[in-house]
From TrEMBL:
This is Arylsulfatase. It comes from Flavilitoribacter nigricans (strain ATCC 23147 / DSM 23189 / NBRC 102662 / NCIMB 1420 / SS-2). InterPro entries: Alkaline_phosphatase_core_sf (IPR017850), Sulfatase (IPR050738), Sulfatase_CS (IPR024607), Sulfatase_N (IPR000917). Keywords: Calcium, Hydrolase, Metal-binding, Signal. Gene3D superfamilies: 3.30.1120.10, Alkaline Phosphatase, subunit A. The keyword DNA-binding does not apply. Residues 1-24 form the signal peptide. It comes from the Bacteria.
Amino acid sequence: MTSNRTFCLTLFFALGIINLFSQSAPPNILLIMTDDQGYGDLAYHGNPQIHTPALDKLAAESVRFTNFYVSPVCAPTRSSLMTGRYNIRTGIFDTYCGGAIMAPEENTMAEIFRDAGYATGHFGKWHLGDNYPSRPHDQGFMTSVWHQSGGLAQVGDVPNYHRRDSAYFDPILWKNSEKYPTKGYCSDVFTDEAIQFMQAHRDGPFLAYLAFNAPHTPLQVPQEYYDRYKDMEIDPEVFRNKGEYVHDISANHQEAARGVYAMVTNIDDNIQRLMDALEELDLAENTIVIFLTDNGPQQYRYVGGFRGTKGTVREGGIHVPFYMRLPEGMAQVNTVEQTAAHIDVLPTLASLCKLDLPENTPLDGRNLSAFLQSAETPALERSLFFEWQRSYPELYRNMAVIRDGYKLMGFVGGDADISEFELYNLEEDPYEARNIVEEKPVIARWLKAELDRWHADIMASPHINDLPRIVVGSPHENPSLLNRNDARGLQIIWAQPDVYVSWDVTVARAGAYRAKVHFTETLPERGRFILRIGNRTFTKEHSGGEVNELVYESLPLVTGDFKIDGWFTAPGGKLLTPFYLELERLEHE
């Protein structure tokens, strides 16, 4: 009896130990994305003039997706990466003019991982809304150190806009909801914050999303990095002699390449710091490291042989690097040739980390984990779609579909004849050198029908028909700073002193509000400002004094949805419109 009991206890503990060791800890995730870094801006992709040893090493140690695609510009890529859905479904259709506010109802990667017990951190560019409820810490990131707008020193980045010549140094950032002054170069600062986050959560699991704003313009970089490239000249013939396409490169674009390469080399040094930190924290073996870029290069330079730049649906605009360095046992291949895209990252990561996805929001992306296990995995039967315009997507204009190795592109409007499209066999012609639309009319019409179907589907999405609004007067953000990046109006809004701007808001709580209206320039000596909130008008007379701000001390607002706009007029016809607007609910009222 004693002997049997001892045996049973021994077996019980043995099985418990086996079970304990069979349940490995959930993997951490370090997701790294750069801004406007093209496919050719890495030595690993055949560029002999750029110095990227850390990225080259990461590529060599990773599963490399050789046919990976993103959207042609920043915010659409970021919304698809965070949600696994085409950007139009999320309310994102552009990079500014109110087109870069993501609907708060979307289930984000950060929310899904946070709810599964992960610590979630975001560092760098967000570009999916600068106000509640669309900020990174509203959308699932427990810690966020970020800048507003689409980039430092852009019109929506109010704290740094007036230091445009040096905004990448000592930037004023935000830590969740609070202003956060920093010291140092922006890419170094964001890396510091990511490393501190990983240190604080070394017992894991964590999701760290490091979204560098470099090498986006302005091309500001520490002198030591620029000096490495200051005498560099790109000779397109070097690449053309190898059969790779390179656009003609002007003197201005040569200089831009020097700045970009310097910024990428700085990023590379920071990548090495991140890899060293993972080793020092004993986290490297259980951390999924992902590297990608958000779109192609803004300027002409070497793009791995591809045609096109940022903003276009040509390969140079949307075909980007994608590396996954995985813990041992998660992958049995070195490369994946399956055509993949930003929308696939969330479902794939959820599968690798054994997380359930919400059932209330269907994803466009697919789980690609099977392709990590075998090169014999059957190809997916699906079409992938890409587009970008400065407004809602017009059918066939700067729009592409990729399926079964073929790519159809349209650059004209909705009444286009099939002969006006471009069709390429990417397996035989990856550089898009020979348009075969006349040779393959059946395939072209089939893919055109795919575009028709997809366009009709996404344009019925609720969030593109009822665009996300900024919520003001909420306890989560008060005051609210309404900037020009998220203002609506004509698709030309930038820093012009007189361009029409408006903001679509939801007033969360009724009460008295203070409104501070800021302008880009000093107001004329006399004039009148009219502020409209919905169907209510508030007029303020101005006379004397050199000011660029007007204040309404107490405006009675009720709850509801409203459009806010305003304009200043002076004798002689001078017109000024707000640069930004601060709206604060007075809590004591």
